[in-house]
Amino acid sequence: MKSILFIAVVISLTGCLDKNTTTPAKSIDTFKIEVNEKGYVPAEIKIPSTLDTIKLIFTRTTDKTCAREVILEELNINKKLPLNQEVAIIFNVKGSNELVFGCHMDKMFSGKIIKN
Prior knowledge:
By secondary structure, the chain is mostly beta strands. It contains 1 helix and 9 strands, in the order H-E-E-E-E-E-E-E-E-E.
């Protein structure tokens, strides 16, 4: 049993290495977004063009808007945003220069992720 666990750990760690070097691949960048009366704050997130994966952490702090979920149509993501709870979404942005996210009401409240 211990040897299976060891093999799983080695495989897991090997997957974190860039195939062309022996250094670990770039970690995931994390961005926090508050969902309040103004919508998604910040509404625009700029990321480096070299970044492939990001983590967005949404926290809805009001019941006074329709922004009770976040939708990224291009990536088929639709997450409910419970009041005063963090909701993390990790996804790949490789190949996308701009991604739009927003509420269910045809993006009445929206934001975007832009590669620099």
